[in-house]
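Question thread 4412

I'm putting together a teaching handout and wanted feedback from people who do this every day. The idea is simple: show students a protein as raw sequence, then show them the structure tokens that encode its fold, then repeat with a second protein so they can compare. Below is the first pair exactly as I plan to print it.
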Amino acid sequence: MTTELQSILKLEVPLSVQIATRRMSMREVANISPGSIIELPKLATDELEIVVSNRQIGVGTAVKVGENFGVRVSYIGNLKDRINALGGKQTSNVSPTSESAQAAANATPAESAPTDSPDTTAEQ
């Protein structure tokens, strides 16, 4: 392995696990206060999207690791697709059985970007 490749593989990138997204009117956003509950259009048992650089690279289920959250990976794209996600290229790395993965695969980069809805992404 070359020194350049070793250096690249040591870089740290933000990995996010996305629970869900939803659209809200500005009125609804303005009315959010401590204690508000924001209902998300996803079942608690549905798979979560594993995202790097606003690109889905896999899916998994939520687990508890000690006192922390974790994700048990149930599908991960191939290495080439994961590397392409880091470079911002479109990938074809989603599981055909995951409805949320299919939606992410069909999303344009603008749709993959954060919206004006509340942040529902947990960063690792």
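The second pair follows. I'd like the answer to focus on this one:
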Amino acid sequence: MKKLIKKLTSQVLWQDKVMSVGIIISFIIVLTTWLLAAQSELEGNFTPWHYTVYFGIDRVGPWWYVLAYPLFSSIIFIANIVAAILLYFQRRLFSYVIVSTTIVSLLFVLMYVLSLVIFVL
């Protein structure tokens, strides 16, 4: 744990533009996902949380199901950023790939939550 904290606070890591910008963009995407899910108007005991073109609303559940997607994006963010930081000092290219795929996967979750908030809720 001390090794991870030491690597996380390393000046070398934060001076690297790819890593610092990637981590900041990922954090902004996760924060946006949480804000979108939190601002959605949830009414009643059951809320629609999945929509398809063919069937319309096909899944309903408790209001807190909407918060599963931001939680999923937070887990992706934490796991991948920790892996990227641990690999940064040994294999920089792998850490760049991890950070970039983190951004892409978080964008997919953000798009899903955005479509859920706009079209379903």
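Top answer:
Good format. For the second protein you could add a caption like this: The mean pLDDT is 83. The helical segments are 2-8, 11-15, 17-39, 68-88, 92-120.
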